[in-house]
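User: Could you check the structure of this?
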Amino acid sequence: MKALKLAGQVGAVGLVAALLGLLVWKVAHDNHGGIAAEFNRGNKPHAEDFTLKRLNGQGSLQLSTLRGRPVVVNFWASWCEPCEREAPLFQSAFKRYRDRVAFIGIDTTDFSGEARSFLTKYGVTYPNVRDPYGRVLHTYGGLPIPRTFVLSRSGRVVGYIFGETRRDRLEREIQKALTA
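Assistant: Sure, the predicted structure tokens are below.
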């Protein structure tokens, strides 16, 4: 009986380890596709259009309605520690550039209540939308996050920041979009 119990425990630990390994593999390999990969190959792909429900407002937001202005698109989630650190940076940049650059936050693979609390906690006022199942995120490159894309007026990706955004890098990418 004791041997059977031990075998069950070893099997359960093995299953958990296998699932964890699968998750790590998925996260590590999810970065090799989509718009991010196109940009990393030296191309300037058109940003894939999307329509998502707003988190901090009524209705939906469609990316293509912002053509004619540079756009900063940031993928984030309330459970993401680097996202917490960069939220004030995006809010500050939004205040500085709001007349010339559109900002969109895309909360992904998250619960809407936690996402709204995140926006309140960090004083985020620029438009944020919800991608609950990560479908749009997958099109742009997948997990892990954060990921930030900077789009030209014509909707081409002219800047891409993988991981936590730093002020100087964001400023450089915005300036590039303003002159593209």
